Amino acid sequence: MLNATQLINQIPENDKKDLEFISSKIKESGHESYLIGGSVRDLILGKKPHEYDLTTSSHPEHVKKLFKRVIETGIQHGTVTVMLADNAYEITTFRKDIDYTDGRRPDKIEFGASLSEDMKRRDFTMNAIALNILSGKMIDENNGIADIQNKLIRTIGNPLERFGEDGLRPIRAIRFQSTLNFQIESETYKAIFLTRHITEKISRERFHDELNKILNSQNAFIGLYELYKNQIFELFTNEIFTKNLNLELLKNIDKLEVSPLGLRLAFLLNLLLEDNDKLSKAEVILKDFRYSKSNSKDALFYLELFNDNYNIENMSVIEIRKFLSKIVSYTGKREIELILKGFLSYIRIFSDKIQFQNFENTISDILNSNSPLTLKELAVNGNKIIEKFPEIDKRKLGFILQGILKQILEDPELNEEEKIFRLIETNKFTL
Fold first, then answer.
1. DSSP symbols for 224-271
2. Pairing of strands 87-93, 53-56
3. d(C-alpha 177, C-alpha 220), whole Å
């Protein structure tokens, strides 16, 4: 493993300058500060940290006076955020957490604790390693470095006590298992199911955030399986997942595109839910899990596509046009790429390589040919039809236009004004 100096040198130069500036200001004021948490863990793993949290002996009110731009992000818990240019650095005062009765937050905070006491209140050993940016001193009193090297997720102290304090911690353990590809230490793992009554107390928004991190990870299967196995999903929705989850199918979720988020959500719900009334149940669950209208809409659209059971081996060019028409009608032609790419990653899983390539090539040919796929691309609109055929009931225009589009998807060369008018004159569905 790299030594402390080498770890510090891994920090990108701009971030390192900011951290040295913050640490120097705190030191000049007579206090000490350490980089701690996920950033130190990531540096040990050779990863670039996404954010940097510091812990300090200085009181939050004192920290506020040291810097020009400070946000009171959680000052009642000893946390402020220092802004340097566009970069945010969260700084928390050494503290002891006293009693947890709601399974979410400590009843009382005591400042003036030592670094050692502060580290003992943290969740996992791998997140309780302190690194002094200025001196290069690294403090690891809970064998966090060894656990990182062994790829092990272990609570600090008794896991039942740690998880009993904050119901989010068991879900974080599962999330770290998924995002880091670590294993959960046996006693820590047992405590996940045993403290479900505490996990149930956390907000659905907090669960939503952790679930998203799992869905976006490269090992989403691991985390989702553990949430299912430990009956965590049921804590945040009234839906009971009695269906036996097909693990072999669930493993395929890691082959799907990560974006848009609704893709993997739909894949998960498709496997969790019974076939009857699947879409309406999914809609309720997405609402329970606090997903936005946009993410929910995408998930329900993908779920509908999954259940259309497209068999690309037997799809004709006409059927592929109709398939694309459905997607374009949902996204608009300019935004089709993201939604289509996501669905193709799903189709690829269950398709022969050559068949998939042919399917993808046909899609590319259709899109490049600018064949009409939506009502907006028809050579006529409702006004032109009424102008040509004033006797037509306006209430039937939508039906007429859909009928015209259906025929043009079968034969794009019909998309000319006069040809469409002849269609209207000769087809029963229009008059």
1. HHHHHHTT-GGGGSS----SPP-HHHHGGGGGS-S-SHHHHHHHHHHH
2. parallel
3. 9
- Cβ neighbours for 205, distance < 8 A, ≥ 6 positions apart: 290
For residues 212 and 292, the answer to whether their CB atoms sit within 8 Å is no
372 to 21, 324, 330: CA distances (angstroms): 59, 10, 15
Rounded to 10 degrees, the C-alpha dihedral 150/151/153/154 comes to 10
Stated as kind and residue range, the H or E segment containing 143 is: none
Amino acid in position 209:
D
The torsion angles phi and psi of 164, rounded to 5 degrees, stand at -70, -20
Pick from 114, 108, 121, 113: which is nearest to 161 by CA?
Answer: 121
SS3 216: coil
Stretch (H or E) spanning 81? strand 79-84
Instruction: Give the whole-angstrom CA distance, residue 146 versus residue 137.
Output: 17
For 51-78, give the secondary structure using H, E and C. CCEEEECCCHHHHHHHCCCEEEEEHHHC
Query: Which residue in 118, 63, 126, 65 sits closest to 89, CA to CA?
Result: 63
Backbone angles phi, psi at 16, to 5 degrees: -65, -40
For the chain, the 3-state helix, strand and coil shares in percent, each to the nearest 5, are 60, 10, 30
Neighbours of 215 (CB within 10 A): 21
pLDDT reported for residue 392: 84
Q: List residues bridging with 110 in a β-sheet.
A: 96
SS3 category, 37: coil
Q: End-to-end CA distance of the chain, in Å?
A: 79
Are 130 and 139 contacting, i.e. CB atoms less than 8 angstroms apart? yes
The secondary structure of residue 105, as a DSSP letter, is: S
The alpha carbon of 297 is separated from its chain's Cα centroid by a whole number of angstroms, namely: 15
Q: How far apart are CA 45 and CA 213, in angstroms?
A: 19
Q: Coil, strand or helix: which one is 86? A: coil
Which of 422, 326, 308 minimizes the C-alpha distance to 374? 326
431: pLDDT strictly greater than 60: no
pLDDT at 430 > cutoff 50: no
Q: How far apart are CA 76 and CA 95, in angstroms?
A: 11
What pairing do the DSSP bridges indicate for beta strands 152-153 and 183-184? parallel
Tens-digit pLDDT profile for residues 167-224: 999 999 999 999 999 999 999 999 999 999 999 999 999 999 999 999 999 899 999 9
Residue at token pair 């130190």: 40
pTM: 0.89
